[in-house]
Amino acid sequence: MRLVVRIGGSVVASPVNTELMGKYAEMLKEVKAQGHEVAVVVGGGTLAREFIGIAKNLGLEMQAQDELAISVSRLYAQLFLKTLGDAGCSRVAFTLDDASECLGEGKIVVMGGLKPGITTDAVAALVAERLDAELLVKGTNQEGVYNKDPRKFPDAIKLDRLTFEELSSVLELNEHKAGMHQIIDPIAIEVLKRNKLRLIVVNGYQPENILAAIRGENVGTVIS
Ligand code: UTP
What we know:
The chain is built from nine helices and nine strands. By secondary structure, the protein is an alpha/beta fold. Helix 3 runs antiparallel to helix 4 and helix 5 crosses helix 6 (120-131).
């Protein structure tokens, strides 16, 4: 199977969790050894948001704020790529062409941000589209998608399966702001929808959830 794994910056980089990063590297090497083709997209976490704040305080525009956040995510991507050793590409993919070229070499693609105005969710969806992947797995800091924000509402219920239309109606925020944070961004949803790609949102603190998602086990929330 060809798949894209999106690791939330909020999971591995807020603050940096080297143990978890190491576990992800081992898990992804195993996925590759099983014959799957993988691209990984990592976010910039709190450090990216710190840089966005600094840029804002300096009076810089949103594009500059985004560019700084992208640089931070690429730094984490580089760190992660080094951890993958020989299994990973020779360098971080900066473009969709880079990603495609690297996958063609039989290596694990690692990417951070792509361009201003989007989030790494959208990057992951665009990579999935470009690589003709069949699955995107997102590791988040929640067990999956809930009917309402579980951080605000203790009675929120986790949904096992839903359509992209249903997902859109669950999300309240639809406008891009630098550093915005939500389950999955609306641009990503559009890209996934038009390509009929499957998305599985899992708890990213347990990398084995990604393996379970690949095996088709009942984990997280499946959106299709
Ligand atoms: P993300 O919000 O995607 O990173 O990007 P993250 O840390 O992985 O997010 P969570 O916490 O796991 O959900 C951080 C910010 O970087 C800019 C945007 O401002 C985005 O909100 N960014 C990122 C871009 O402008 N373009 C990109 O391609 C990626």
